[in-house]
Amino acid sequence: MSIDDRTDEVLDETLDAEWMDQRTGWRGVWNGIFLRMIPKVNWSFTLGSATLFVVVNQFITGILLTIYYVPSPQDAYDTVLYITNELPAGWLIRGMHHWGATAMVALAILHMLRVIYYGAYKFPREVTWISGVMLLLITFGFGFTGYLLPWDQKAYWATTVGTKILEVTPVVGESLLRIARGGDQLSAVTLSRFFGIHVWVLPAVLLSILGIHLYLVIRIGISAPAKREE
Ligand code: HEM
Predict the structure, then answer these.
(1) What is the value of pTM for the model shown?
(2) Measured between alpha carbons, how far is 213 from 202 in angstroms, rounded to an integer?
């Protein structure tokens, strides 16, 4: 039997989970994530996972919205109306994205308050905390950039006021305002800039930092509330 025949035979025989595990070591990763030991905790410890669930919701519904949404001053508002009123289940997908955004901010803040209450930001979880602060800022960034996208009166004027705040920054205020708006006034440039940040930049940064955050949670292990006698 040639070496090639033997190789084929071995591969055929072991084409199952074991085969994959030998080559990728996936079982170790699976066990590390899903079969790890965790201390007995209460419901407030589910707030991080609840936030994670909403993040997944935002990605799925957000991707679906981009199929019909067009980020130009001529089309943005009309496409949002079309999604809401004409597209089958469009109202539902937009609603899930809209309310998901609010839920994500609320849950991330509640999760942070839980971490503060239990002192879970202390050694050895300082880096988990710092990555969490970044996630919260990114979440605010999503809210701020997403608010402009329907391009209606509320969105236009809220972003006019929101970007104006940058102007009070000492020395660089005016430059910051121009960078945020892509000019002196809100325009097509602002809309496409906000859209690009909302659907490309922030998701990429969020996924990277979230990866670090969850890696640390798994690596260090969750903090358990202290018992009465401790
Ligand atoms: C997109 C936002 C976020 C997601 C998806 C997320 C996800 C998670 C998950 C799933 C856990 C483990 C379960 C739990 O403790 O609830 C966790 C733990 C943790 N998170 Fe977050 N998190 C986010 C934002 C934040 C924020 C804003 C902070 C603080 C500023 C933070 C700080 C921490 C810390 C310190 C832990 C470890 C807690 C412990 O060991 O008890 N996270 N996070």
Answers:
(1) 0.91
(2) 16
